[in-house]
Structures are given as C-alpha cells and as structure tokens.
Amino acid sequence: MELDDFWADKYPANINREVDVNVYATLIDLFKDSCGKYANKPAFSHEGSTLSFAQLDKYSASFAAWIQRHTDLKKVIGWRCNCLICCNFLLQCLAHCGLG
Description:
Radius of gyration: 16 Å
Number of helices: 4
Structural class: mainly alpha
Number of strands: 2
Largest sheet: 2 strands, antiparallel
C-alpha cells in the first residue's frame, strides 16, 4: 500500500489533499499567516495542555529573540530548519510543564 493511499480516507471532507507549495515563499511566511488566521484556535496539544496559535507565535518569537541574544548562531542555509526543530522541542517542553 502506498503512503498516499493510506492517508486518502483520513482527510476531513473540507481539507484539500494537495498543497500549493507556491503560496508562501518561506516556512516563516506560512507560520506567520497561520498564526494570524487561526490565533484563537489550538495549534499544539500534549498531555492535556494546549497552546493556541497566538501563544505559539508569542513563545516562538520570544525563543527566537533569546537565541539571537544568547548564542552566536550565524544565519546559514539550514539554520531555519534547525530552529524549527528547536521550536518543536520548546513546545513539547512547554506543554509537558503545563505552561501552554
């Protein structure tokens, strides 16, 4: 069974299965637009704690500012991907600690 076949019946009727990858220039653009559109909706849930998109935007901006102030990371190719991995880790920590 192909992976696409497995997921075919898992999508709700109102969700497109195809994604137009040309809508956003970067993942950051997608993230910012999503946080604006869905500010009061849940973005992340883990073990009973939930963060809204607005909270996710706030915490990720704070985390990015901390990284800029307290590290000597240089902007290089792949830096944003590594930051997304760090943000995912941060979200898991926040949710686990009940801060969401």
